[in-house]
Please model this.
Amino acid sequence: MSVTVTINGQSVSVPDGATLLDACRSEEIDTPTLCYLENLTPVNACRVCVVEVEGSRTLVPACSRPAEDGMVVQTETDRVKHSRKMVLEFLASSVDLSTADSALSGWMETYGADPSRYGTPAPPTEDRDHRHAGHHAAASGEVTETVAQPPKIDNGLYMRDYSKCILCYKCVEACGEDAQNTFAIAVAGRGFDARISTEFDVGLTESACVFCGNCIAVCPTGALMFRSEYELRQADVWNEDEQNVTRTICSYCGVGCNLELHTQDNRIVKVTSPMDHSVTDGHLCIKGRFGYEYVQNLEDDLATTPVDVVLRSVRGR
Amino acid sequence: MNKPATDAERAAVDGLLDSLPAGWDGNPLEGRLAFSGLHRSQQLRHLLLPALDAVQSEIGWVSPGALDYICATLIVPPAEAYGVATFYALISTTPLAPIVVHVCDDICCRERGAVEIVAALRAVFGEARSADGPATWMTSPCLGQCDRAPAVYIQRAGQDDLVIAPANPASVLAAVDGQIEPMKVATASTTLLGRPGGKSLEAYQQGGGYVALAIAASQGADRTIAEIKASNLRGRGGAAFPAGIKWEAVAGIASDYKYVICNADESEPGTFKDRDLMESNPYALVEAMTIAGFATGATRGYIYIRGEYPLATTRLKAAIREAYAAGLLGSDVGGHGFAFDLELRRGQGAYICGEETALMNSIEGKRGEPRNKPPFPTVSGLFDKPTVINNVETLVNVIDIIEHGGETWAQTGTADSTGPKLFCLSGAVAKPGVYEVAFGATLGDLLDLAGGATGDIQAILLGGAAGSFITGDQLDIPLTFEGSRAAGVSLGSGVIMVFDTTTDMTDVARRLAQFFRDESCGQCVPCRVGTARIEENLARKLNGHGELDLQLIDDIDVAMKDASICGLGHTAATAIRSLIDLGLI
Model:
């Protein structure tokens, strides 16, 4: 069974159950997405993928709206471009996007997003985890509010910098029903003060976290990061251009998860799994994600490169 | 490790579970308690908000130990429960003094003494949200008492909550000390508000109550829905959707479970009609819900009432209890051969939960975040089952429609706006209150009913914070759905709030922006950030840091209208835009 929709005047047939995003992508229409990921349930929260559907009063999120026979869709209208631009401006004016997926800066340019017009960003605050719903501190009008805050570093495997969080819900979904079923994190608070949190903001080691790292894998902005990557970036040693990605199979158990070992200076600095891999859908467990220490002996006298020095400093912390 | 829950905290949670009636089911997984794990957790998750409420009400805040105990009892992951607890303004996850005074400083109360009350409380109890001392205070969005502004709502650990309106510094401080004067409840002699027998079920029945249910039961579900459709009754909550269409849609779907919900989460600033209806005659709402259940085939109903309405809550609880005792709820309603159970759920301080799908998520024990539509509730609503959701006023009209017949009832009002309508008059009028008129009355007629403006009219807010302002030279607008649409305004929930020339409308606009910044659920980017940016823009002007950036406000408004998930974002800048367009800010 297939359904036929019209996109920008072109007739497009997609399988029954496909979304408008699927239809757009089948036509190679560039459609920005931030909270959407192939291996997660769409939450349609970021609204950057909105399109115009004839007969709909408001714009429609392409990522979650099923294509229906006869739908007439526009993706290039001024309304669509305006909302996409505003979403990008809203995020860029309130969130640190410096380590976000490179596609994002391309969309900022495409849609002419200018976050500077919102005024001077407010400095980091330390109270974001303790704000009460319905009781924000009144805006002064001097600066524009941001989510800037100190990073959370409470274990040796990964860190969280919610200054970079666009609240796409992906990490919550990956930790919950879409992958890990651990439910260590959830969205807490409300409105601009909404944030990803463990219960009572306890550290990860006190939470239900099992350190599978699936939240890191789905994070689009680098808010969640391997500790190794974070420290290498802090030391200004991280260099993706010099990294190799080697695909292999996890050696721990018999499931056969594919791993992508990201190496720099012959050291593993990060591990991912391909999203299109039928066994993992991109998800791993703690052993596949972080259990690679045995292949690289950082105690060796020969482990002296700048990468080695940084990685050694992270170990056991 | 957290400090374990205290005996008192455990007792609060256990008391909730013990209070559930024998054979209670309350969700689609009835009878599967023998299953363990996931099934049981799905069974109990929807009790999360009542459990948080129980601890908050008894102890005064939800400690880590108490949350742990709730999570262990209901089988909910602690992070998710924390996410839910921190979503609601009336639940505190940090220690608070045992008495918390919520002082309404919204657009009506702020000019009518709220500032003085805050000053008095600050002088006695220090800064807001204190954990020390016998009491503390915080400001609040509209408490739905605008006809007797200023209002305070007081949470008291271990005792009943209460509302004082009109309040003054002395009466609030006395109430904190336990000296409480009973509130006067409005009495009216109109069709809806004046329905006889509001004091007891017996009196209600003697006054003609439950005749409508008998008529409905004898004429059958199809005919009942046909009468509602013939009446052209349109929703009184703000969206004006025809109620009969919703009923018919749900009745026509075969499903193992269906639900009817009464949206009594009346939180639109300036709105207090539903509170008056529920306080003056809770039995009528219970009967109307029962009729809705019968007509649609739903066997369970929920009334979701805002937490800041303690009097209406108490009266509705009593009305439901009496109806069960009289056999007018339960397995065989009134001997008519159908089953209907009705449960009251309290909101916990979240305007967004008045949005129908957010309300459903809230009942399910989730964060009150609106769902993307479609699917619509009539297809997939509460617990993903077909659901009718109607406003209080909408439902109460059902009784007259059934008693008199849809076509007869529709002769009141205009062709497109049938029946009587309640309006909430507040602000600078001589006699603020709820007024009932037949649809067709003009704005001027309503103002006359309320004794006219008390000063020179600067602006009138129609429809609430999500509505828009007009000026005093537009009093001939007919307050009908079609008339307001033609005038480019919205009736919304029936708010008519008058501002005289002494009011600083920039301050009003900033407070409205603060309201939406506070009440946005935060789920979608346009509303989460857009509401903050609008408030900043107004604060810039109000605090002398610059002028309004009209282009930016316009850009934000358009994006929020086009790309937000729900009506909160769609309308968050509408009233402010109207003030700009009128040249009032």
The radius of gyration of chain B is 23 Å. Chain B touches chain A through 65 residues (CB under 8 Å). Chain B is about 40% helix and 10% strand.
